[in-house]
Design brief:
heterodimer; A: mainly alpha; Rna Polymerase Sigma Factor, Chain: A; Arc Repressor Mutant, subunit A; 2 domains; disordered N terminus; B: 337 residues; alpha+beta; Jelly Rolls; 3 domains; 16-stranded mixed sheet; 10 helices; 28% strand; globular
Chain lengths: 185, 337
């Protein structure tokens, strides 16, 4: 069944129950939340910081979330709340070391350097083009194209409406096609 | 013809461009590994929950007793603290806080137009709808200005509060006599003295501090002062020296004396670290034309401007060029309204 474009996403009651259990100190519930939301955090961070640093920052984000979990009033809002922590962590990454410029993002990709293959070159070109897009499109496209989440999953995890996600995906993809065409040899 | 359903939910015939991007980008995909989180954090959560249950039964019993007592005392006695449905729960944490002119009762609620006042020995907490909480410290006066969906606004006339908010940006506001703190998803301390001067310290996320004159964006780990009539000053990180802070106060608020300003600016330029580029960008707006050139030179040497950003444009405070410069170094700046 297709999710209506302008309908609110279904609330994940199972996730909300996990959040409530984790708030009571249940380690395995927090582990489940990690399994379900790590891709979301990874995709958001990848939109902002060098790829090689993303895995470490994913752990930082979940640790910050664990420490602040008791302050989360609405367990159903966990995804949006976590996404905000991830964006804040990405900002802190640059604030603490402003030497790191956005143009370092591409240099840090796996496969950079003398041994780079054509596939890696394509990866770098694609990621570089995505990172030139506005933040909203950038994050949504990375969640779809890198993390493999579908539009409805993105809506469910982020708390955005399916309509917003659909618009972000299609407008973002349109801009991405244009950028890649311009960059094509 | 492109298959837009494939981009949306991978149904139907794969779109060639999308499928190719999926394949080339898949090596970046997150590989889950078992998380190692400290047991102490879970133990804290368990203790917190245990203390909630330990105290909740007596609380309920006491609340029931109070309800009976209230019924006996009479409707009129309690009506002064009845509140509309969109009022927020307010809880005594210590001492004898007052709600308007009366003592703060158990299970009280605070509505638009009401004020919460603490003396030197009292503290209280307000649950701000479902978006977070505010703890009011001793010797403070806080008013509830708005409680509507989309905009919750308090006014801290004097004293201290700690706010912890989990809501989309720009839903929670705290006004002070000299600036408004706009929540961008954050946790912060805010204090206001009897003269109306304020200090904000952000501990998580970001806060925008604004008046009609100035607007600054303050990240976690940074502080900013504010003065009546002058608005927020230059934000600075908490590690800077007391001399550095004093020098910023001179430049922001205190002095038109050229010698004092020269001395303050010299100290700031000498002591500023690369991390203090946040302060230096905002300082561009707080100094005279001749002083601005010195600040520009420090910034240009420390964080070279990207192509397209010119010295002339920055010196005439071209906002878009300064934003572009901050963007190039990953430094956030207030969004233009």
């Amino acid at each position: 069944m297709r999710v209506g474009v302008f309908a609110r996403p279904m609330q994940s009651h199972e996730d909300a129950a996990c959040v409530a259990a984790a708030q009571a100190g249940d380690r395995s519930a927090f582990g489940l939340l990690y399994d379900r939301y790590a891709s979301l955090v990874h995709g958001i961070l990848l939109a902002h910081v060098p790829a090689l640093d993303v895995d470490d920052l994913v752990h930082d984000v979940f640790l910050a979330a664990l420490r602040a979990l008791s302050s989360l009033r609405d367990p159903a809002a966990f995804g949006g709340w976590l996404a905000k922590i991830a964006r804040n962590r990405a900002r802190d990454y640059y604030r603490r070391a402003p030497r790191r410029a956005e143009n370092e993002l591409e240099d840090s990709l796996p496969g950079s350097g003398p041994g780079s293959t054509a596939a890696n070159a394509e990866l770098r070109a694609a990621l570089s083009a995505i990172r030139e897009l506005p933040q909203t499109y950038r994050e949504t496209l990375l969640l779809r194209l890198v993390e493999g989440m579908t539009g409805p999953e993105i809506a469910l995890r982020t708390g955005l409406t399916p309509g917003s996600v659909r618009v972000n995906l299609h407008r973002g993809m349109k801009l991405l096609r244009e950028k890649l065409e311009k960059k094509a040899p | 013809m492109k298959n837009e359903d494939y981009l949306w939910d991978r149904s139907g015939e794969p779109d060639r461009d999308v499928a190719r991007l999926e394949e080339s980008l898949s090596s970046l995909r997150h590989c889950p590994s078992p998380p190692q989180f400290p047991e102490a954090e879970f133990e804290k959560l368990r203790r917190r929950r245990a203390s909630f249950w330990r105290f909740s039964s007596p609380r309920l019993a006491l609340a029931a007793a109070v309800a009976v007592l209230m019924a006996v005392v009479g409707y009129r006695e309690i009506s002064s603290q009845r509140a509309p449905a969109n009022a927020w729960a307010v809880t005594r944490l210590e001492g004898s806080p007052r709600l308007d002119s009366g003592a703060l009762r158990r299970n009280a609620r605070i509505a638009e137009g009401q004020s919460l006042v603490t003396d030197s020995a009292s503290r209280a907490r307000i649950d701000v709808a479902d978006i977070g909480e505010v703890e009011l410290g001793p010797n403070s006066r806080l008013r509830v200005v708005q409680t509507r969906p989309g905009r919750k606004e308090l006014a801290l006339d004097r004293g201290f509060l700690h706010a912890r908010i989990s809501a989309p940006p720009r839903q929670f506001y705290v006004n002070t006599p000299s600036a408004m703190a706009v929540d961008l998803g954050c946790e912060y301390d805010l204090s206001v003295d009897d003269s109306g001067a304020g200090l904000i310290r952000v501990t998580m996320g970001w806060v925008q501090f604004e008046s009609g004159v100035h607007k600054v964006l303050i990240p976690a780990g940074a502080l900013a002062r504010t003065r009546p009539g002058l608005g927020p000053g230059t934000p600075f990180f908490e590690e800077v020296s007391a001399e550095f802070q004093s020098a910023l106060e001179v430049l922001d608020f205190a002095s038109d004396d050229p010698a004092a300003r020269r001395s303050a600016l010299r100290l700031v330029l000498e002591q500023a670290r690369r991390d203090d580029s946040l302060s230096m960008f905002y300082l561009l707006f707080r100094v005279s034309d001749s002083e601005r050139a010195l600040v520009y030179d420090w910034l240009a040497k420390t964080l070279p401007p990207p192509s397209g950003v010119t010295r002339e444009a920055v010196l005439r405070l071209d906002q878009s060029q300064i934003d572009a410069w901050m963007d190039a170094w990953g430094l956030d700046h207030p969004a233009r309204d």
